[in-house]
Amino acid sequence: MFEEALDAPISITENATRKVRSLIEEEENPNLKLRVFVTGGGCSGFSYGFTFDEAVAEDDTIVERDGVTMVVDPLSFQYLSGATVDYKEGLQGSQFSVNNPNASTTCGCGSSFSI
After folding, report:
1. Given this model, what pLDDT does residue 2 score?
2. What is the CATH number of domain 9-97?
3. Which site in 17, 73, 94, 109 is 20 to 30 Å from 88, CA atoms measured?
């Protein structure tokens, strides 16, 4: 499923787009895409994961913004619908984060949640 960034059921911020583009340039592989996923575990039940991937499955949701592609598998998508992926730098370090309206609770580190 292809989605434009402005109409997407999951979105990526300008900060995250800029960071992804920078990391892809460092790797010198323009075929890389940011894969966002959800796994079981973490202090709140589920955890967010981020990786780079060249492959896109037929049933992945694809979101493009400013030349950057983000992909989400169907299982993770059900937990991430309506979410926004961001990149933050602060006192606790730099990291990708997810603002997820589906999460009923999140942990202090911001990388795990429960529904």
Report:
1. 44
2. 2.60.300.12
3. 73
